[in-house]
């Protein structure tokens, strides 16, 4: 598998992880004030997932433009 294909696969995996983190944050928000102490940890998890996704997308775009 080429680096390009491996990176595309990584981006798809990260998209799924980010979507799951978003839903977890959304579900937590709907249930507030129950489990309000989990807000910070859940938000940090979502932030990390989206930051990693953004980085991988940027890397993929650079690789695509270099082809």
TrEMBL record:
Keywords, ordered alphabetically: Coiled coil, Nitrogen fixation
InterPro entries linked: Helix_hairpin_bin_sf, Put_N_fixation
Family recorded in the similarity comment: Belongs to the UPF0437 family.
Keyword hit for Nucleotidyltransferase: no
Pfam families, per database record: Rop-like
Coiled coil: 4-31
Protein name, UniProt field: Rop-like family nitrogen fixation protein
């Amino acid at each position: 598998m080429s680096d390009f294909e491996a990176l595309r696969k990584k981006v798809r995996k990260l998209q799924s992880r980010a979507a799951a983190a978003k839903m977890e944050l959304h579900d937590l928000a709907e249930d507030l004030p129950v489990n309000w102490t989990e807000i910070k940890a859940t938000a940090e998890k979502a932030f990390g997932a989206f930051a990693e996704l953004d980085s991988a997308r940027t890397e993929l775009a650079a690789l695509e433009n270099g082809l």
